[in-house]
């Protein structure tokens, strides 16, 4: 027993769920951690410290607008995870799409002060960032819930703990950075680079850790997709004789094939085979 876990593989799986939970809120939290950078973003995007806002209301309330627009985008995209097209995708593909969208949405914000754009372009970029980050968040949450659904409840709790821990981490980081750096135009820009860089590193790390679960013995035991990948890799190294089962009764062979087919369903196949409406009716 290691910290209440039966093995190091189980502990690693739990830590992965916590990191995924932290990643849920990072795009928004890193912006909230740099409020002056966001409210003065038009100055940094144009490269002019003395620039005047072309839309004072928007820039004064940019964080509130970001949060509200983010919620709307998530509400629009969250139901799409129930479509057959999305359910047909593998966990790895869904994690890759979600994390890539979140990374792209976070990366464009600190990129604009480097390339220098107009205030109008900066506003458009912010909404593009909202769209990408919120869409990625919706899919990351849904995919994480799919991952932990076949595991004990503590792994779902781990993801929820990570979401709450995100605020603590960013708040502590904000206190440390603000206390050790000046509150000047250039210093605020450097602080924003630190916030966004660390946020993107953690989000990228969550993707790497989810990919490594494919080789994790505990995840292979509990997640159908990873279990089937392990079985497929084992079968590739096996040796099959063409005469095996030659004299087996047909009924017995068909029964075994049916059992193998049912046990060999990946997570995506299980989700695709599950009708959505009966499940919704059951819990509504």
Automatic annotation (TrEMBL):
GO cellular component, one term: plasma membrane
Topology term for the membrane: Multi-pass membrane protein
Subcellular location: Membrane
InterPro entries per UniProt: Eqnu_transpt, MFS_trans_sf
Main location: membrane
Transmembrane segments: 12-38, 58-83, 95-115, 121-140, 161-181, 193-213
Pfam families referenced in this protein's UniProt entry, alphabetically: Nucleoside_tran (PF01733)
GO terms, molecular function: nucleoside transmembrane transporter activity
Keywords: Membrane, Transmembrane, Transmembrane helix, Transport
Family (UniProt): Belongs to the SLC29A/ENT transporter (TC 2.A.57) family.
PANTHER family: EQUILIBRATIVE NUCLEOSIDE TRANSPORTER, EQUILIBRATIVE NUCLEOSIDE TRANSPORTER 4
Name of the protein this chain belongs to: Nucleobase/nucleoside transporter, putative
Organism name: Trypanosoma vivax (strain Y486)
Top-level taxonomy: Eukaryota, Discoba, Euglenozoa, Kinetoplastea, Metakinetoplastina
């Amino acid at each position: 027993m290691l910290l209440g876990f039966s093995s190091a593989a189980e502990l690693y799986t739990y830590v992965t769920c916590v990191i995924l939970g932290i990643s849920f809120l990072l795009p928004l939290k890193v912006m909230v951690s740099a409020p002056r950078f966001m409210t003065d973003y038009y100055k940094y995007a144009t490269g002019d410290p003395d620039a005047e806002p072309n839309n004072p209301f928007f820039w004064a309330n940019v964080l509130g607008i970001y949060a509200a627009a983010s919620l709307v985008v998530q509400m629009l995209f969250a139901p799409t995870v129930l479509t057959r097209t999305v359910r047909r995708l593998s966990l790895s593909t869904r994690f890759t799409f979600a994390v890539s969208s979140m990374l792209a949405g976070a990366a464009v914000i600190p990129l604009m002060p480097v390339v220098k754009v107009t205030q109008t372009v900066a506003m458009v970029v912010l909404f593009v960032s909202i769209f990408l980050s919120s869409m990625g968040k919706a899919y990351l949450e849904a995919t994480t819930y799919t991952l932990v659904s076949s595991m004990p409840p503590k792994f779902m709790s781990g993801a929820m703990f990570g979401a709450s821990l995100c605020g603590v981490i960013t708040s502590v980081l904000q206190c440390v950075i603000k206390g050790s750096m000046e509150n000047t135009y250039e210093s605020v820009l450097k602080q924003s680079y630190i916030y966004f860089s660390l946020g993107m590193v953690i989000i990228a790390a969550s993707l790497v850790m989810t990919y490594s679960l494919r080789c994790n013995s505990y995840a292979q035991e509990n997640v159908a997709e990873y279990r089937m990948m392990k079985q497929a890799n084992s079968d590739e190294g096996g040796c099959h004789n063409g005469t095996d089962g030659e004299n087996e009764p047909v009924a017995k062979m068909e029964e075994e094939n049916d059992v193998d087919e049912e046990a060999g369903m990946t997570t995506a196949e299980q989700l695709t085979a599950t009708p959505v409406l009966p499940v919704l009716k059951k819990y509504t």
